[in-house]
Structures are given as structure tokens and as C-alpha cells.
């Protein structure tokens, strides 16, 4: 946790506030910030620019003059690109400039920008922002008391129409909520002003996935979290006792603290055979003529069954049906 001073609207220090290092104390990732900025700028483009080709501009298709005999250069119709009023060859056409960026990268870029502001001492936490009257001079007085006359990005816990209207006429001042905060605003404005509730909402917003995973584990099992190896052993015990795999995975997932361990449990359960499934298949029907051979092999492989002579084996082979049809007739008889 990073402790920062909390100020009031008069610029006086009234306490301290601990900022979560996962949001305000990481090492900024410049490469991810650059990718996020490029994606956000590209997504702002409308992509509606359009030019007309030679098939779309106004004009006829007749040849300007005959091919030979005039002494002039050969020409086609007047809609060709080199004629005035002709079509454009490689001009822009409506398209989408949208760029997708994974949510983890977007959050990492925002956390990197906020951490950089904290490291530069360009982030101020105030207890609350209230106005005696919805006037621009009231907001200007607060900024002057905080030493931020040159402008700042003000993050309010909830939308306030009066505060936004009062700050609208000030240059380089913008008011947003934690849900409307974006990376370009954090990088554009020189200073960031957060209220206590806004800082808490922003921390929860940027760490919601991690917090949600820990909340599930804490609610499901109050004991110490188990490792992936212990979870695999739990699944094997459930499978040996006849518990279905999906139930085993659910029981083991409740005792695991990391999403990677839960994924490992699901993979282990998918590879394990389902409980109660018929693992043994019916043996194929022996082909006629091979029954005697199998008898001879079993007799040779089992010395405890007693001596077996070659004549007995030959008699068994002769008594065996030669074809499948004969075997069926023998069964019917």
C-alpha cells in the first residue's frame, strides 16, 4: 500500500489514504500503454472518408479524339485520373479502423498510467468535492487552493451535473466518473484529482477479476487454499469412490485459490474415465478354425493344466467347424 495525503477543498491536509499497489504502485509498462493509446485513437476514427473512382465520377465514356492522325497524345475518356475532374486512383473509402485489445492489457495500461502519475506526484486525493454554489469561480478557487491552476482531471464518485457545469468553462479541466475514465485523459491532463470514494471504486474496477476469484474461494472454503497437486489427488479420490467427474471438479475447485489450478483440474477430469462407464467391451466372436489354435496356445502357456499331446490338439482342430455357417448349424443342432 502507498500512503498519500488527503486534502480538503481549502488545500489543507486532513488525513492519509492508502492506495492499492496493484493499481497505483506497479512498474509502468510503456509498450502496453503505447498499444492501448494506438487502439483508442484508432477506435475514435469514423472511417467515413470516401473518394470517387473513374467509374463513379460524372462524365461520358466516349473517346476524346481518334487514336491516330491528330499529332496529339492518345487519350481515352475524360474520367481518367489524369484529367481534371477525373476519378481518384488510390483514394480512401469507407472502412473500419477498429482495433481489439484484450481486457487485461487495457487494465494494465490504465494501472501503468495511474502508477506513473503517483510516481510523479501528480495525483491528489481529496476527501470530498462540494460547491457552495454551482459557479465556475468556486471550482477555480478549489483548483487554486490545491495549486492546480493549470488544469486537472477530476474524478468524481458519481455524476454531478452542477459540478460538471461549473467546471465546463475552465480550460484544461475535465470531470469524469471512474466508469468513464479512459487512458487518453489520464495521459493528457497534467494532474489527476481523486476523491476517496472514487479511488476505492477505481481500485475495485481495475482488480475486479482478482477480487472476485478470492471472494469465491473464501466463501466456499474457509480453510487454507490447496495447491494444484492436492487438488489432483482430490479428483482421483472422487473418481475412485465412484463420484462423477463434474462433481469431483466442482468439489476440488472450491478448495483451490488460483484460476490456473481450476483449469488444471478440469483437464485432469476430462482425461479421467467417467465413473460407471463400461470400460470393458464384449470380446469379438472367434473366427471358425481359430478356436483349436487358441486352445493349443493356452495349453502350452499353462503348464498346470496337465500334459497335452499333439494328437489331442489335432483332434480338437479337426472337430472345430471350418466356416462360420457350420458353426451356426452346430449351435442350432
Please characterize this protein's 3D structure.
- The chain is an alpha/beta fold and 333 residues long.
- Among the domains are: 130 residues, Ribosomal Protein L4, Chain: A, CATH 3.40.1370.10; 54 residues, no CATH class.
- Helix content is 44%, strand content 9%.
- The chain is built from 14 helices and six strands.
- Strands 2-1-3-6-4-5 form a six-stranded mixed sheet, with helices on both faces.
- A hairpin with a 5-residue loop joins strand 1 and strand 2.
Architecture blueprint of SSEs:
Layout: E1 2-7, E2 13-19, H1 21-24, H2 30-43, H3 103-119, E3 123-126, H4 136-145, E4 152-155, H5 161-167, E5 173-176, H6 183-188, E6 192-195, H7 196-206, H8 208-220, H9 228-240, H10 245-254, H11 259-271, H12 291-301, H13 310-319, H14 324-332
Parallel strand pairs: 1-3, 3-6, 4-5, 4-6
Antiparallel strand pairs: 1-2
Helix pairs in contact: 2-3, 4-5, 9-10, 9-11, 10-11, 12-13
Given the helix and strand composition, which structural class is it? alpha/beta
Q: Give average pLDDT, whole number.
A: 77
Order of helices and strands: EEHHHEHEHEHEHHHHHHHH
Oligomeric nature of the chains:
single chain
Reported by name, the CATH topology of the domain at 2-25 and 101-206 is Ribosomal Protein L4, Chain: A
- Order the strands across the largest sheet as they lie in space: 2-1-3-6-4-5
Mind describing the biggest β-sheet? 6 strands, mixed
According to CATH, the homologous superfamily of the domain at 2-25 and 101-206 is: Ribosomal protein L4/L1
The tally of beta strands, per DSSP, is 6
- In whole angstroms, how far apart are the ends? 90 Å
Amino acid at each position: 500500500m502507498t500512503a498519500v495525503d488527503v486534502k480538503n477543498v481549502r488545500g489543507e491536509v486532513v488525513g492519509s489514504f492508502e492506495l492499492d499497489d496493484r493499481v497505483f504502485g506497479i512498474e509502468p509498462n510503456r509498450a502496453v500503454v503505447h498499444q492501448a493509446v494506438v487502439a483508442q485513437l484508432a477506435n475514435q476514427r469514423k472511417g467515413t472518408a470516401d473518394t470517387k473512382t473513374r467509374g463513379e465520377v460524372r462524365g461520358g465514356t466516349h473517346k476524346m479524339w481518334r487514336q491516330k492522325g491528330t499529332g496529339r497524345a492518345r487519350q481515352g475518356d475524360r474520367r481518367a485520373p489524369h484529367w481534371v475532374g477525373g476519378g481518384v486512383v488510390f483514394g480512401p473509402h469507407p472502412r473500419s479502423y477498429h482495433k481489439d485489445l484484450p481486457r487485461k492489457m487495457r487494465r494494465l495500461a490504465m494501472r501503468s498510467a495511474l502508477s506513473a502519475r503517483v510516481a510523479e506526484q501528480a495525483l491528489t486525493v481529496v476527501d470530498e468535492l462540494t460547491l457552495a454554489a454551482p459557479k465556475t469561480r468556486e471550482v477555480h478557487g478549489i483548483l487554486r487552493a490545491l495549486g492546480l491552476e493549470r488544469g486537472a482531471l477530476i474524478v468524481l464518485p458519481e455524476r454531478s451535473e452542477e459540478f460538471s457545469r461549473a467546471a465546463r468553462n475552465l480550460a484544461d479541466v475535465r470531470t469524469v466518473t471512474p466508469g468513464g475514465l479512459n487512458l487518453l485523459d489520464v495521459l493528457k491532463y497534467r494532474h489527476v484529482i481523486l476523491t476517496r470514494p472514487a479511488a476505492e471504486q477505481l481500485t475495485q474496477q481495475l482488480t475486479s477479476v482478482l477480487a472476485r476469484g478470492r471472494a469465491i474461494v473464501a466463501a466456499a472454503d474457509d480453510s487454507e487454499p490447496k495447491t494444484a497437486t492436492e487438488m489432483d489427488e482430490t479428483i482421483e479420490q472422487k473418481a475412485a469412490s465412484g463420484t462423477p467427474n463434474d462433481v469431483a471438479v466442482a468439489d476440488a475447485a472450491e478448495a483451490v485459490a488460483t484460476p490456473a489450478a481450476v483449469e488444471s483440474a478440469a483437464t485432469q477430469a476430462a482425461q479421467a474415465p467417467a465413473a460407471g462407464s463400461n470400460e470393458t467391451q464384449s470380446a469379438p466372436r472367434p473366427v471358425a478354425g481359430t478356436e483349436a489354435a487358441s486352445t493349443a496356445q493356452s495349453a502350452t502357456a499353462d503348464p498346470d493344466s496337465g500334459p497335452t499331446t499333439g494328437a489331442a490338439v489335432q483332434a480338437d482342430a479337426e472337430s472345430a467347424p471350418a466356416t462360420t455357417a457350420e458353426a451356426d448349424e452346430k449351435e442350432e443342432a
